[in-house]
Write a structure and sequence with these properties.
The structure holds 2 protein chains of 2 kinds.
Chain A (H helix, E strand, L loop, with lengths): L3 E4 L2 E4 L5 E7 L5 E7 L5 E7 L6 E2 L10 E5 L2 E6 L8 E8 L5 E3 L3 E5 L1
Parallel strand pairs in A: 2-11
Antiparallel strand pairs in A: 1-3, 3-8, 4-5, 4-9, 5-6, 7-8, 9-10, 9-11
Chain B lengths: L3 E4 L2 E5 L4 E7 L6 E6 L6 E6 L5 E4 L2 E5 L5 E6 L8 E8 L6 E3 L3 E6 L1
Classes of the chains: A mainly beta, B mainly beta.
Chain lengths: 113, 111
Amino acid sequence: SAVISQKPSRDICQRGTSLTIQCQVDSQVTMMFWYRQQPGQSLTLIATANQGSEATYESGFVIDKFPISRPNLTFSTLTVSNMSPEDSSIYLCSVDHGRTEAFFGQGTRLTVV
Amino acid sequence: GQQLNQSPQSMFIQEGEDVSMNCTSSSIFNTWLWYKQDPGEGPVLLIALYKAGELTSNGRLTAQFGITRKDSFLNISASIPSDVGIYFCVIGGTSYGKLTFGQGTILTVHP
């Protein structure tokens, strides 16, 4: 299994500011993913973080709003830019360990005021 | 895009009761997964299904991959308080990490 650490675990931010969320994995993984879980909702895939190239975004998500870095095979960051209250969500990092399941971090609970 | 219909949305049961939840789709899929999310945590895989008709158990949990490949159900027998959480049916994409989640079933177990 993979152990995934996310930082911060929670934050309260002012609208208009940006927050960068970090995801660290205890082993090298090929694929890393970022999901959003809005209050009371299910998880929605934001993007695939590709090592050595730009992230691949899902429909409805754009790089200017959610820039992603993947400097190596164990680390990725997601930035939520120019935040508004609608960005208040749990943001989760996930890895595909090349096996039959995906592992998730504990999530970052973001509140924008 | 792909859409999953999961029901029920929520369940309130007494400890010891059995629980059943299901998921349907208009499209055919090759993999059905069931995840559980505890409060303040990320989802954790419970059961993975890879073949139509497959019936798989994990302790008190049993899940089946429908013959039509468009549906799946999850049963929990003899529920206990720690079963509380949100249960998601999930389908895989080109990568196991690229997942589509159902709406979730919120389970509450009264002692």
